[in-house]
Here is the input.
Amino acid sequence: MNKVRGEGRLQKPQVATNVILALVALFYLLPLWYALNNAFKYAESISVQPFWLTKHSFTFENIARAYEQLHFKTAFFNSALILALSLLLLVTLGSLAAYGVILPNNRAIRRLYTFFVALISVPPQITIVPLLLLLKRLDLVNSFLGVAFVYAGMYLPFVIFLYAGFMRSIPKEIVESASIDGCGPLKTYIHIYMPLLKTITGIVLVIRGVSIWNDLLVPLIVLNKNAMFTLPLQLYIFSSSKVGQWDLVFGGTVLVCLPITVFFLAFQKSFVKGVMAGSLKG
Amino acid sequence: MRVWYRNNRSAVAGAAFVLPALAVIGVFFLYPALMSFRYSFTNWNGISPDFDYVGWDNFRYVLQSPQFKQLIWNTLFLIGLYVPVLNIISMLLAVLIYDVRRFAGMYKVIIYLPNIFSMVVVGIIWKVIYNPVFGPVALVLEKLGKESWAQDWLGQTATVMPAMSLSIVWYSVGFYLMIYLGGLSTIPPDIYESASIEGITWFQRLRYLTFPLLSHAITINIVVSAIGILTIFDLPFVLTGGGPGFASQTMAISIYIYAFKSMQQGSAMALAVILTLVTTAITLGLLRLLNRREAAHE
Here is the structure.
């Protein structure tokens, strides 16, 4: 195929295509570069020279001050704890439930599965007001576990759907031979299914991990103690209180982007693959 | 007997495995969702244990409120303009990226990049970009001698929706691009090969080969982007907060404002019920329409 594409007639469109795509890439990089380079600039230089950084205008002070005022360390650990708890719930409960669905069993559970899948398209906004009262009753307001349960309730239908789809594609012979060897359903799940589904677990961790890490709505509603705020919530509050102090706002913005960027660059390949595979199934 | 035992045993095991997830979904999603339906017919204020049923009052209040017309208009704008524009752009980019040999991976990563950041981050950046005094757009226009073209993009009723949509498109294209690329990668290469031997043009190939072969990915993307835009909260909330006035309010923002700013919980839940019904109706409608089209292509 590459050979055909490489032949003369198609060479010219390649140049045009690359020009178009390079312009699109520029349109994507400019806003990001704009925020990035201004995070390292004195306020006075930002309005005059918004697109380039000189030795003269360089400073690290914005980042340092934003680090303090965002309570970055606390917010980072809050975000990380919420992420870990939510993903633990999603992966364990989600894969277990999907396994329960694909076991040869009665029709009731199959029906339940259809219902799970239908829940994927229900907007989470429908839950928010009663959810708050419920969390108060369960003493889960201002609790990381409370936030994690909210995410679990929101995303489990999707995760179950994803796992069930891939579990169905595992050949029955593998499972049958395991059961002949005396593996019960639970053992088969732990020793046969989960190791085979590492990729899916990776997809769940990446897709849902990113959306939970970046989410504003749930922490905005459930958490009201400053010491428990997550990175996006801190950044939102910080940027609304610093209107006009663009040096600080950019410093904070870049700082908040740092952890996920490092993660993305480290796992770029599997990240993109995961999103593609996951979204095709979802 | 043993067969019966095996089947029964796995049904019991299945139920036990489904139970924990079912409990979490039931308690933290389903129960509050159903309560919203119930409370939307009451004057409950979100806190006190007492409330009375008030019939359709909340719905009447929401539907007759001055901003509801604007809300409908904005929703139609986003569904009617944002969804097709977003899908056309993502599909074209996917086709272009699929065609290039070198740099394809780089283009993919760059266009996908905004997706890894919080919508709070994206909202902040675009808010500054659109700033009429200070922003880079205003600065570039000034350098070009076109100061008069600089507008308060987010501060005017006439420009806020297109400006907001542009930033949402900028943010979302990467995600939909990936799905289209995934769809393209499932097309067997020999179809394109034999087509190129037949000597068809680029547009013919797009129209008669790529479109029909992508129809499944198109269906997924149209439905997912329609649901996505109806329920999007973070980005518009950070960018405009629904303003100026109600000019850029979306259903999701309006629900939040009713519930937590103006403390009209009944109205918030009535609107949330409307949003759920609209989302379900649009999802089912689109699926039926698109499935019929997909079937017609086969």
In short: Residues 72-102 of chain A form the longest helix (31 residues). Chain A has two domains: 2-64, 70-241. Residues 1-10 of chain A have pLDDT under 50 and may be disordered.
